[in-house]
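SAMPLE LOG
Freezer: B-3
Tube label: C17
Construct: single chain, 739 aa
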Amino acid sequence: MKALPWIRAIGETARAGLSVERTAIHPLIALRGAVGVGIVVGLTLWAGSPELAVSSAFGAFSSGVATFQRSWRPRPVLALSAAAGLALSTFVGFLAAGQPPAFVLLLGVWAFMAGMAWGVGPTAGVVAASTVAVMLVTVTLPTTLLGALVHAALIAAGGCVQAALIVLFPVRRWGERRDALADALAGVADYARRLRHDPSAPFDPEPLMKARSAAAVTPRQARRRPRQLGGYRGLAERFRPVLASLADPYLGAPMVGRERERVRELLSAAATVLDATARAIRRGERVRIPEDALEVLQVPETGPVLNGPARKAGMRLIALTEDAVDAAEEPVEITRSIPLVPRATWHMPVRSDSAEDADVYADPEAEEERRGVRRPRHLNQPSLAALVPLALRIFRRELRWSSPVCRHAVRVGAVVALGYLIGKSLPPEHGYWVPLTAVMVLRPDFSRTYERGVARLVGTLFGVAVAGTVTALVHPSPALSAALAVVSIGLMYLLMRTGYAITSACIGAYVVFLLGVAGSTWSQTVLERIWLTAVGGALAMLSYAVFPAWQTPLLRDRLADWLSATVSYTVAVLECFADPRRAAPGPAGTPAPEHPDRKVRDALLDTRAARLEWDETAARAGAEPVRHRGRLSRRSASDAQAALVTGGRVTMLLEAHLPERDAEPSAGAAEFAEALRETLPAADKAVRENEPPDWGPVHAAVSHWWELEADRPSPSVALRSADLMADALEDLAEAVAPR
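STRUCTURE (predicted):
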């Protein structure tokens, strides 16, 4: 019976590894990468030797792979960084290659450091793994010390060629950043449409998080980036709480009646404006907004239809739409009636003159400037040199036995060293394929390791079978073999993000053709590649079974982190109600002590990061064939997640109704925030230790708040939100209670 979870888990990961993902394909970018490999291989084959061609090909190939990683750094920088690491790995490996014990030790240490690089990020981990692979391959080529320098220089030259091609032949400048921002706006537009029919529709914050990552640029990039990329991300963030607040029946308009119809009209019009803006950003053209949408996004001539909090949210939505047009900083086209209206002459047709609605039209930047708040012009992306101390801090933080990254690094180092010894003891000439396969398959988590292991084997079988058949029928010359290798790598670049099985098939064909350049016979290469790849993949998967780093035991920790972030977000919002003047400016010329919006924004980002960590851990834990003491069942995890999503949504709705500075402080909000702050440490500990958290003081604070507002004709938005938050926390306590 114990074997059943393993069989089931391996079957599920195998199916996932062999799946094909439908994704965008960029032929010109793939062609550019393949041309870079072709230039390097062709020149070294013409001016040097087949061995040099094989060596140089790895540099151009691996540097090209680095440029396809999901990173917001400039692609030339990625190519040059990968080339530098590959060249250093090659030269250091050659220095120790003459002493087998020293080389095995070096290989293990180098692989361990490559495994630790995953703490910095996936891109760093992939590039570091490629340096181990190139060390395994190039040291098999006989050479002298001078030859080692030549090999290292050729590998570095391959990266330089890839970087030069990116600079000389750019394809869709800023395209990925445009797509990220457009996806965020389109995601908010889709959210607005779903809210028309489901006021509690879920929202996926990942596009907004991706857009924020894409917005980080260097000072030089900030001076060169298109204007459209500098003004819309913040608007997308501001739209979301206003849309949700407008649609919510508890805090906004009732579910039936004229007010609800008006809400649906506003939501649909806002979605149209957001979609038009997203389309313009993606294509790099002017914003074209349908006139019908603009007619809806104004106060009706007969007067406002909405009342109370819903009216305030509606007015803010109208103001945000005007900000979206102003953010274009270019002419905006109103389709179907007005041919072209310059930005300076575009205004919302009707505005309310009531004091209740005056605040929604205030210029936030002018208000911040008046208060002395300085806003950064862009999110700063640190240089590679600035990342060195950060990487060292991450290394020290992860260098502990309980860290999944450290366990992965130990696993990689041991497997690569053992795989190298196994490969050396086997009769085939290319025994290094065993550790090479292992290092490329191993990942810090179970699911991706086993997915890649199965995909690597199946893809390699298909790739080498096709390449072997072509070689057997055509008997290509070294030049033709080099050309076929370049074609294979071009296909890999083109299809890299469709699935690892397809990538492995292209790599398998590439290796067969490339070794044909050096004179290896196809029959020997094909058979060796297949069974040595199988040995390396099996070694990688067996190592994870023997020395795992399971995600299942981390579920409660991730849930506690998310709980802490969500409650902190709620406290930050409530503090604005408790003391609206806490960020009031000091004497003339001095900045405000603390900007509440900035604190709320930081707390929101922490909440999103914690939720992302939970989602990733829960997804990986769901694929693992293990159980753990204190583990959350799938039902409990689902209920706990729903409770925290509700709590975050309630706080987000409350954020849409932040008070003005001259508003009356709320004693109930202050008491409720203090109760949350004091109860959180014990609740965090309880969730981690498989105990039900006690939210008694929080419920008592809500009850007292109701008493404070007993004389009011209707409870405030803050009180209703606090009541919902207390219910969500109680649902969480029931979900995580031991059963």
